[in-house]
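Most newcomers find our protein records easier to grasp once they have seen one. A record pairs a protein's sequence with a compact description of its fold. An example says more than a description, so a record of this kind follows:
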Amino acid sequence: MDQVPGSPQEPRDAHGDDGLPGCYRHTDRPTGIRCTRCEQPICPDCMVSASVGFQCPDCVRDGSGRAAQATAPRTIAGASIAANPRLVTMILLGINIAVFIAAQLTDGRLVVDLFLYGGSVAYGESYRLLTAMFLHQQIPHIAFNMLSLWWLGPPLEAALGRVRFLALYMLAGLGGSALSYLLAAPDQPSLGASGAIFGLLGATAVLLRRLKYDMKPVLILLGLNLVFTFLWPNIAWQAHVGGLVVGAAVAFGMVHAPRDRRTTVQIATCAVALLAIVAVVWVRTLQLVG
């Protein structure tokens, strides 16, 4: 058993006159407190506050304690650093490609059943607001969206963390579907991940501004995409604009949330965005069926 320098004759868990064990570092100090990790006795000078009880300096130093975990590296949005910052992006890519292949194998029937069609949504098929985000009919369409996702996704996923990145992607896509449902003709079908992609583009602009990076490249790219959105035929500009607005707003709440209440603000931001989407859908449904 190791001994503490300066007290060569006293064992680590020595008991004082009052029957309490001595601190493992200061054996002349009786204490009734033990480390919640290793259960060694610790005096007030050695105890480190944890979420439950106290821990000794050794457990904190070697990273096994809660206090050490609190100082672990975090992303700008407060998430843990992931070993693979592309995991969610790759899963989303896989889902989009799998749905595209399935649509081809069903001769487009899957597309008809799942694309965004205002008349169907108004009469109960609200799931189309979600499923339309993963549908593509033509190879150039899915190729452009997936290349954009692969380019924009990993940096955002690394900066926000997996859960926050997924929330951003889904809310941006739903925001695009909601605005398309609100403003497009009820008999105008739409589909594609473009709303979510524009949300990632808006989020990238917000992140670069927060990090004080050069924003010219992303602003130029955003401007060109908006020009094509309004000039190119057969593009649901409502989905692009809706996704862009929601994506930028959610990203702003995530990267600007105060550190002392970061999670609360981020959850509230996502909740407000979702409520806004639900409100838009509700208003449009009343217009169509009311």
Remarks:
- The longest strand covers residues 48-49.
- Residues 262-289 form the longest helix (28 residues).
- Residues 1-16, 64-71 have pLDDT under 50 and may be disordered.
- The chain has twelve helices and two strands.
